[in-house]
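Forwarding the complex inputs:
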Amino acid sequence: MSRPIIEISNLVKRYEMGDEEVYALRDVSLTIGTNEYVAIMGPSGSGKSTLMNMLGCLDTPSSGTYLFNGENVREMDDDDLAEIRNREIGFVFQTFNLLPRATALQNVELPLVYSGSSKEERRRRAEDALTRVQLADRMTHRPNELSGGQRQRVAIARAIVTAPSIILADEPTGNLDTKTGHDIMALFRELWQAGNTVILVTHEEDIARHAMRIIRLRDGRIESDTTNPDA
Amino acid sequence: MRRRSEIAESVRIAVESLRMNLLRSILTTSGVVVGVVLVVVMGWTIGGLDAIWEQTISIIGKDMLYIDKWSWSGGGNWRLMEARKDITLRQAQLLSERMESAESVMPVVRLWSGSVVRGNTSLRCGILGTTTEYGQTSSAELSSGRFFTSTEDYQNAKVVILGEGVAKSLFSGEDPIGQTIKIISEPYRIIGVIKKRGFLFMDFVDNQVVIPLESFRSTVGMFERSVSVGIKTGNEKMVDIVRTEAIGHMRAIRNVPPGQDNDFSINEMQAFDEQVKNIRVGIWVVGMGLTILAFVVGSIGIMNIMYVSVTERTKEIGVRKAIGARRSSILMQFLIESAMLCVIGALIAFPIAQLIVGSARFLAVDVLDQEWATVVSPLIPLDLLGIAVSVSIVVGLAAGLLPALKASRLDPVEALRFEQ
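Prediction (whole assembly, two chains):
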C-alpha cells in the first residue's frame, strides 16, 4: 500500500445536546494512502459529514487518534489546524462557496493569500489551476457570470492551487445537473490520475461509483470498506 | 510576508464591502462624522480664541501694570471698592519717585465721555490725560505724527494724539496732523494718531484722545477723579518683582495698616488671562463632552453594523477558515473594515467642518464686518486633521473589536453550515 496520509484509529465524536450525549462517530478506524480515490457514503445521520469535518481538520475528535501525515491532529490548536487546512487540504463544497464579489482568479488566489505567497506567485499558480480546470478564458469573471459547472470548476481550482495532500469534496455534484455532474466527476478522475488523493463524500451511488474504494457508514460506524469492482 | 498579503486582502475586502453597502456605510458613520466635526471646529475655535487674545493682550501689553481704585476684572467686593479713597495725582507722583524696578511710571486720568469737535462735527469720546512716558507703552503706538514731550506737558501745551476711531470719524481719510479740534471748547493741535488697536470688546481704546496731564487738568479738571497709575515693567519677567514693590510703596503711601487688605487694585492683562483660560476650558469641556457623546453613539452604531456584517458573512468566514484563514486573519479583516468605516466618517467630516469654519469666518469678517475676526484662520489646521483621523481609527478599532472577535472565534463547521 502507498504511504498513508490519513491514519484514524478508534475515532469518537461526541456532542452534548442538553443532558444527552449524542455520538456522531463511534470507534471509527481508517487509513487512506497517497493517490487513493475514496468515496465515503452513508445515509443522512450516518456521521459522514462529521467524518468529513474530521478528515478536513475543521473539527477535532473527542477521543481516538487522527494522524495526518504522521502529525497528531487532536493536539493541534486553531492556528495549526488553519495552517494544515491551508497547506494540505483542498475543499470542494456542494454549494461551491465562492466569494461572490471576487473574480474567479481572486477566488482561486485566496488560499495563497493566507499562505503568504507573493503576488506574482499567487497570480501564476492561480492561472495554472484555472487552466487545469479548463477555465483559462473565464479568469476575470465573477461567480454570478459563470454557470454552475463553471463555478464548481473554479472551486476545484481553488482546492488544488496549493497542491494539497488531499482533495476533499462534499457532495460536489449535488447542485449540478447530471451532465455537468459527470463532467465534474471526470475532472476529479483526471486529478486522481495526475497523482492527487481524492476523497468524495456523497450519498449518491452513481457518484460513489467513480471512486476506487467505497467506505460506507451507518450510525457512526464503518459498515463496509470495499474496493469498487466497477472502477 | 504572510501578514502583508493578508493586510492587502483585508483592505480589498473592506473596500469592497463598504462599496457594496455604500449608503449603509455612510449612514453608519454619521456619529463619527459629528464627532470629528465637533473636534475640528472646537480646536479651531480655541485656536481662534488664542489668536484673538494674543491680539487683545498687545493692546495694553503684557509688561504693563495699572494701579486703580477699581479692579478691571470685576472681581472683588463692589461696595468695598466704592468705599476706597480715590488715588490722587500726588500719590501717583510719590509712587513714581519711589519705584526702582520699573522702567517707567505714569499717571493716567480719564474722562470717559467728553465732547470733541471739528467744525460742525462733534463726537463724544474718552479723553485721557497722562505724561510723556505713556508714549512708550504699546497702547500708544503711533501710525503717524509723534507723541507729546515732557516739556509740552510741563508747559500745558494744547496738543492731542487721536485714537484711530476718532481720526476716522472726524477726518475720514484726510491727514489730521497739524489740524485743530476743540476738546471741551478748548482748541487743541493734533500731533499724532495712534494705530488701530481696538479689538473685540476693547473697541473703546480707539475712541479716545490723549492729551498731556497738565492740559487735562486745565481743560477737564481733576476734581473727584481717581488716578490710574500705569507701571511699565519693561520686561514680562519683571512683572512679579515690580508688582511686589509697587504694592509695598502704595500701601505706605496710602497708609494702609499692616494686616489690612490693599485699598487699591493691581490690574494687569494676567487678570484676563485667567478669564480667557476659563473660556478656553469651558469650550473644551463642552466640546469634549459633545465629542465623546458623538463618538460613543457613533461607535455603538458601528459596532452594530459590524455585528450585522459578521452575521451576513458567516458563511464567507467559514469558507475562509476552511481554506486556511487563521483567527487573527479574520480578526484583522473585520478590524480593518471597521477602522475604515471611521476613516470614511472623518473624510466626510473634513469638508463639513471646513464649510462651518469658513462660513463662520466669512460671516464675521465679510458680512458683519468684524475686523477682529481677521486674525482667525479661515482653514482647519492640519494637525487637527491628523488628530481627528487618529481618533477615528482608534474609535473604529474599539467599536469593531467585539464583532471582529466574534467573527474570528466562529467554529468553521458551524459557519459553513450557516444559511441566510
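The CA atoms of residues 33 and 414 of chain B lie 37 Å apart.
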